[in-house]
Amino acid sequence: MSGERVSVHRGRGVDFEEVRLYQPGDDVRNIDWKVTARKQLPHTKVYTEERERPTLIVVDQSRSMFLGSNKRLKSVAAAEIAARIAWQTLAERDRVGGLVFGTDQIDVIKPFRNGTAVVKVLSAVVNANRKLNVLDSRVRSERNKSERWKSLLLRLRRIAPAHHRIFVVSDFAALEIEAVEELLNRGHHHEMQAIHVYDEIERTLPPADFYNVTNGVSHVMFHSGRQSLRDEYSTRFSSKINELRSLCIRSNVSFTSISTDNELDSFNFH
């Protein structure tokens, strides 16, 4: 089934398939002059019509997403974004599936063009989200997030070898830069968009006071009134965002950063 809407991308609307001997009737504009010179026989490039690109939504519901200081948790914001993308994709008559990265497992839903596929993706997100309420040994598993992320990449390669549209909704926290870079490198083979979800508390320290912070395992007490600490905190966050944006640019990946305070109606996920 071909697409039913005009593409936002400029180009032939076709994919390169092979180079073969020129045959009468071939478009002379497609002659591959380098191969023709090397073989001493006219060769032409063959293209196939570009078809639909199934959509996959990678949703992070790991422990680092269980954070929110005002309107919603990062995990909830990621779930809302995934739901919007999924239903919008189905409305555009494209296939939709997903990979949900939870605290203890990775759910894989193959893309189909029906409401059942959307419900399966969102059900997996809800199930993973509910597990974030439980404080147990899984808290410590966040330290191995990069290792588990590699397992997600292997599954992503199997389900989407090439020519898919992929949305990655995550805070990209607790991940080694190599793990993030390996994921974004898929942008050379797919149309990929990275949607970074953050909470304002990660960018700016709360008002000046003493705070006792815990992740369920360890505790840290600090005073947020020291200006040098506030500046260092904000700078560290900005540096992380700039590094992530640079990686996306190098990998031909679209980048969007969304706060848990943002109204999602102002964002267009395409």
Description:
The protein has 270 residues and is α/β, with parallel strands linked by helices. The chain has seven helices and ten strands. It has helices spanning 33-39, 74-91, 115-131, 145-159, 177-184, 200-203, 227-250, and strands spanning 14-21, 43-49, 55-60, 96-101, 106-112, 165-170, 191-198, 210-214, 219-223, 254-259. The strands form three sheets. The protein has a six-stranded mixed β-sheet, with helices on both faces. A two-stranded antiparallel sheet has the order 1-2. The longest helix has 24 residues, at 227-250.
Structural class: alpha/beta
Number of helices: 7
Could you tell me the radius of gyration in angstroms?
22 Å
Give the rounded overall mean pLDDT.
86
What are its keywords?
6-stranded mixed beta sheet, alpha/beta, two-stranded antiparallel sheet, single chain, 7 helices, 270 residues, 10 strands
In terms of topology, how is this protein built?
Elements: E1 14-21, H1 33-39, E2 43-49, E3 55-60, H2 74-91, E4 96-101, E5 106-112, H3 115-131, H4 145-159, E6 165-170, H5 177-184, E7 191-198, H6 200-203, E8 210-214, E9 219-223, H7 227-250, E10 254-259
Parallel strand pairs: 3-4, 3-6, 6-7, 7-10
Antiparallel strand pairs: 1-2, 4-5, 8-9
Helix pairs in contact: 2-3
